[in-house]
Amino acid sequence: MIRRVMGEVDVKLGIRQTLAKIDEAFGKRSQTTKSIKPLLVAVSKTKPIELILDGYSVGQRDFGENYVQELIEKANDPRILEQCKDIRWHFIGHLQSNKINKIANLPNLHMVQTVHNAKLAEGLNKAWEKVKTEKPDKQQLNVLIQINTSGEDEKNGTEPAEAVNLYRFVTEKCPNLNCHGVMTIGRFGHDYSTGPNPDFIELMKCHQDICSTIEREPTDLQVSMGMSDDYVRAIEMGSTIVRVGSSIFGARAKKNEA
Q: What pTM value is reported for the model?
């Protein structure tokens, strides 16, 4: 775990500034783009518990983690359990089938944003059936289907052409899952001087295809896209969930520094 250097990172200020930018971007969004005000997921991967406590203390409740083992440690940390009773964990990394049960049984797991195929959906659905027997108040697990909008081999996600089919599979065949919408990571470093981000355009098209095919209102389905360097642009195009890390917690240490 990365050691916190006192005074180096002001998480409280970072959250306030990010929320202000979200409000501003949402206010500028075209009135024809119907959606709810975007939710901020503070991405705390590789960051120490103290910084999460700082964020929680100013009202931030949704936190995102990329790595299974790190999320297990943080979700079960005595300080988090005692001081952050309303925290909502979002898993936003690649989830392997053999790690499903470890994730499903975590306290305060709110959403898995990276359901990229039917096999993973089936595994989560089966695991959540067991969770329900132990926690009757948790009838469904919130999920998003991940779409590989950039077509990059190193990125996970179903192909855009399969988005409707995967969404239909989750909603019809996985009763223990509540499919809230779509998510993408997209290609890094888009040059906005050349025009809008094509990955954002593609995800909004998938969102529209699902809504028209399944006959759902656009406001019923979430769109998770946009990170520290482009979340304002993503909101302008219709994002309802943004995943912001370095703008809040500071730059992540390199692997050899972790």
A: 0.92
